[in-house]
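Homework-ish question, so no full write-ups if that breaks the rules, but can someone show me the predicted structure for this set?
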Amino acid sequence: MSEFGLFNYWVVMLLMMIGFYIVIAQGNLVKKLIGLTLFQTSVFIMYISLGKIEGATAPILIEGVTLYSNPLPHVLILTAIVVGIATTALGLALVVRIKESYGTVEEDEIHAKDESC
Amino acid sequence: MNMETVINMVLLSLLVVTAIAIVRIKDLFAAAMLAGIYGLLSASFFVMMDAVDVAFTEASVGAGISTLLMLTTLAMTGRFEKISGNYRPRLALVLVALTGALLIYGTLDMPAFGTAAAPVHEHVAPRYLNDSYAEIGIPNAVTSVLASYRGFDTFGEVVVIFTAGIGVLALLMRAEKPTPRTQTPTASMHEHMVLRIVAKMLIPLILLFGLYVQFHGEYGPGGGFQAGVIFASAFFLYSMLFGLSEARKVVNHVVVQILAALGVLLYGSVGIVSLMNGKNFLDYSALSADAVHGQHLGILAIELGVGITVTTVMIIIFFAFSGRNQIEGEKD
Amino acid sequence: MTILTTYISWTFLVLGGFLCISGAVGLLRFPDFFTRMHAASVTDTLATALIILGLLLQTDAWMVQVKLVMVLVFVLLTSPTASHALAKAALHGGLKPQLKIARGSNKAGQQSEAEA
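A: Not a homework solution, just the prediction itself:
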């Protein structure tokens, strides 16, 4: 897998930037949150890629195996995924409340309503 | 190019394609489904990267619960994105390209993917892999790091999840007044005959599997976080097919809220017990005369706490959303 | 593991792989939503079953075999149900099966894709 080089990381950067683009360039708040999820998942992919060792197996200790992948990134990301869904849910809850009080989830319409008040 | 590299590259390219499709699509329902596909693809990628525990979690969260919450939100906020809008995509594109270029420049110093001598593998990981079996006595290194070595970290994460659950509850819980649309759930029920029968067969299996994942986490991939999410999904299935009011009868809302707090409390009090026995906070060797046995007990207890909190917070979040929605029928 | 079981196993695996690909082709080429779903559900059930049967013959560990059988049962239980729900939802949403083949124009197919 050594011919891979840094390709893995570059793909992660590309995914991250796609998520970033959705967050800053698109006006719909739900779409923004989807973009944020993309960004988040690409960070997860980054960490897990860092933990991989060529030719190693999953870090569940069994006899006769000496090379394991690094368990530390797995631990960090495992908890981060569940925390991520909890915070995304919080964001979606805010979106629902914004929809209820503004009647829209498009960013520019919300700004327009704010200014007209 | 060996086989593993090929699979890797295919999965990564599929991820990129899915991400680009999400940018371009205007139908938010489709975007949410694509985000689910993205989650499933990254879960497969995690399996390739030996992160079986993570893949497990991502498959149930990224492809399951996250999509479900997005769809429930979309049912309230509207399906289509506004086409026009005075945004400047070109400016954003320049900014994104610039940031991306900087980040890629940053990766140039990194050791190549998969090298065993990379600095990240030199620090604490060898100790976890070499000594954890003697110190903790369980084969799954991920669980022993998660629950024991970095137990305080995990405690923080559980508190964050609990807080997010409270936040959702505070934002979305309705005042006491009953909504006028509550009669719809029972009316549409007779149509889902096949779904309901299959679900009745599946729900006990899902619950059983959740328990297996919860208590087998020390020996194979699994643990409180994964089990909590799986356990909660059984309740989601029930409430989607039988209606929210029926599901509310099965899981009492007050009990669920108390249980969510109780999980965190269980975790914290294990730490307090070890403090009282003269050891550090969350040092489980204090729980029993034999240190390794104490670790076993401690991990079992805190994983249970994590499982309870994650399950109940997920149920709280889902019920809050669909209670807000009330319109039955967002079955994907 | 004898040569014979290896051959049988690989026959299953290759057949399953072929059905996966043909299902994907069908998904892209078929004219409307319901025929596409038909193609997809072939992949879901028959291809998966064949691949799992092939994998069953590959291993001797009974624990792995039990898990594979459980996966098979689960897939055979859920994927027809999912297809049923999907078709029903489409029909409910006002999407009628396309009964005549409209040559040349793929408009209807694209429309149904948007609906799905």
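Now go work out the reasoning yourself. Hint: The mean pLDDT of chain C is 82.
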